[in-house]
From TrEMBL:
Record InterPro entries: Cbl-bd_prot (IPR002157), Cobalamin_Transport (IPR051588), Transcobalamin-like_C (IPR027954)
A GO molecular-function annotation: cobalamin binding
Species in which this protein is naturally found: Erythrocercus mccallii
Major site of localization recorded for this protein: secreted
GO biological process: cobalamin transport; cobalt ion transport
Gene3D superfamilies reported in the protein's UniProt record: 1.50.10.20, 2.170.130.30
Residues annotated as binding cyanocob(III)alamin: 8, 53, 155-156, 181, 203
Homology family: Belongs to the eukaryotic cobalamin transport proteins family.
Designated name of the protein: IF factor
Any one Gene Ontology cellular component term annotated for this protein: extracellular space
Subcellular location: Secreted
UniProt keyword terms in alphabetical order: Cobalt, Cobalt transport, Ion transport, Secreted, Signal, Transport
Residue ranges occupied by any Transcobalamin-like C-terminal domain in the UniProt entry: 125-197
Length: 203
C-alpha cells in the first residue's frame, strides 16, 4: 500500500522477513524497506505472535536463520541478572475521560437478517472488546457475543447468536468508516464518536 503497509499489521512481520530474506531475487526491482519499517515502528504491538514475527525483521534476520544458529557457542553464557521492577509512581491513577462509540451489528448473509445499533460510553483508551462487553452488558439479548482465544488475541466467533463457520466460509468482519480494521478486537482502540460495524461476511 502507499503508506508502506504490506497486507495488514498482522502480516507485516512475516512479509518483512520474506522480502529481506529474498532481496536478491527481486533485483533490479526495489521495495521501500524504510517506508515498510516506519509502519512497524509506529505500531504498538501487543500480541506475542505479532511481536515474535516482527522482531527478527527488526534485527535484519528471518526465521530461516534459526537453522544456522550455533547453540554450542551460547551454552556457557549465564543468564543476565533480573532488573528490579520500577516502583509505582504514586498510588492514584489518573481517570480517563469518557468517550462515546457507536457500534452496530449487521447480518444480510444468512438466516434471518438483522441490523442493530447502539452507542456506549467507555473510558478513553478502551479496546473494541471492552466496547462490545459494555454493549452486551447493557443489552445482552441483542449484543451478546462469544470469543475464543488465539495466538493473535481474542477472536470473535459469534454475535447475536450467529456463529462464524469455516465450512460456510463465514466470519465477523469489523469495519470503521467502511474500512476493515487492521487490528483485532483485543487491541483496537476506537476514538470518540467512531462508528464500528460488525458485519457477518464471507471469504
Amino acid at each position: 500500500k502507499k503508506n508502506g503497509m504490506i497486507g495488514n499489521i498482522y502480516s507485516m512481520g512475516l512479509a518483512l522477513q520474506a522480502l529481506e530474506a529474498t532481496r536478491k531475487f527481486y533485483a533490479p526491482r526495489e521495495w521501500d524497506c524504510a517506508q515498510a519499517f516506519s509502519v512497524v515502528y509506529a505500531h504498538d504491538y501487543q500480541q506475542p505472535m505479532a511481536i515474535a514475527q516482527v522482531l527478527p525483521a527488526l534485527v535484519g534476520r528471518s526465521y530461516l536463520d534459526a537453522a544456522g544458529l550455533d547453540c554450542a557457542a551460547t551454552k556457557d553464557t549465564s543468564p543476565s541478572p533480573q532488573l528490579p521492577l520500577s516502583p509505582m509512581l504514586g498510588t492514584h491513577s489518573v481517570p480517563r475521560a469518557p468517550i462515546q462509540v457507536h457500534y452496530s451489528i449487521t447480518n444480510t448473509l444468512q438466516g434471518k437478517h438483522f441490523h442493530y445499533s447502539t452507542s456506549v460510553t467507555v473510558p478513553s483508551g478502551s479496546t473494541l472488546l471492552q466496547v462490545m462487553e459494555v454493549a452486551a452488558e447493557e443489552n445482552p439479548q441483542t449484543f451478546s457475543f462469544q470469543t475464543e482465544q488465539t495466538f493473535w488475541g481474542p477472536y470473535v466467533t459469534s454475535i447475536h447468536g450467529l456463529a462464524a463457520s469455516t465450512d460456510d466460509r463465514t466470519y465477523w468482519q469489523f469495519l470503521s468508516a467502511g474500512d476493515a480494521l487492521d487490528e483485532g478486537v483485543g487491541t483496537y482502540k476506537p476514538h470518540d464518536g467512531e462508528h464500528i460495524q460488525a458485519v457477518f461476511s464471507t471469504y
